[in-house]
DNA sequence: CCACACATGTTATTCTATTGCAGTACTCGC
DNA sequence: GCGAGTACTGCAATAGAATAACATGTGTGG
């Protein structure tokens, strides 16, 4: 039985300040254990990502960072993101060109993402069944897997509920 | 039993001219059946993609198209790609910002891609087991699936064989 | 033939990301 | 503490990916 949910969808009872704090503490701890430097810029970028708790664009981060750090430029952000990606502290969502905090940096994993089209919420799964099925299917083609990008678009539970309760949105085409 | 392989890896016996011709004929036939116009530009872009038989970048296509069509500009390519994507004649590989021909435009599908890191070859699968497992896992989160992006990076059979035969490449980092 | 829809031309702009080089700041060994 | 080396940041420019907005052309049906 795989423990599939790394980052669930935010519930209404979600205490966001606490959630950010936990993520930051985990990052600090992990970096010091690994002997790498979570510098002020890197820390701030990670925090900005967690505060939003949804996929964030690099240039949005840049705008926010500039408010407190005049010298920030694209490389500033991309370097920070590269570091955070390398340390497993954030994931990149390919289909959105955006970045989200990783709910479980302490064991390396690829992640499978559920992305809500209506509210942009993202949940992260880390499901062995999925990985193994894909690896098995790939193996039938003689293919050796190194990396998987799995991004599932659809409607999250909260938005499904809204739809049912009459507040149905036009299905854009 | 799903019929998983839409486009297999190119074998050495692969007759590429014939493969391109088949794809083009299928596209012509499909477009006329659907009453949409496979104009010269669209046809040419599709053909350029199939000739390469690997993921192609939009601006590479643009450079090639410009050689024979001076007026070509970014919108020229992106409009053609939009059309081809919409008709299911090509797929976009999110993790590469690149486009590949679809091996089976005649039934709509999402596709799962095996991408070789060494030679850039791509195989397309369309596997129900995978889709259904993902839909099932998503459902346990109360999530309704509309679309799946599945891109698997690794090493294709031909490159695995090369590796075994001593021509092993340095694992970059 | 005209009107309309569709397709393409053209120019500019936005968004995403990287390169290269210069300067600064930690940190390790002395 | 001090110098050397590495890692980090500043800065300017540019590459790469995609779209906007509006003009012009083309093809088909009434």
Topology record:
Two copies of one chain form a homodimer.
Chain A: E1 5-7, H1 16-34, H2 40-52, H3 58-68, H4 74-86, E2 90-93, E3 98-101, E4 112-116, E5 122-125, H5 128-139, E6 144-155, H6 157-164
Parallel strand pairs in A: 4-6
Antiparallel strand pairs in A: 1-5, 2-3, 4-5
Helix pairs in contact in A: 1-2, 2-4, 3-4
The structure holds a DNA duplex (30 and 30 nucleotides).
What would you say about this model in short?
The structure is a homodimer of 173-residue chains. Chain A is α+β, with helices and mostly antiparallel strands and 173 residues long. Helices cover 44% and strands 18% of the residues of chain A.
* Percent of residues in beta strands of chain A: 15-25%
What is the molecular shape of chain A?
Answer: globular
- How many structural domains in the coordinates of chain A? 1
CATH architectural arrangement of chain A: Orthogonal Bundle
Task: State the CATH class of chain A.
Answer: Mainly Alpha
Helical percent range of chain A?
A: 40-55%
Say what the CATH topology of chain A is: Arc Repressor Mutant, subunit A
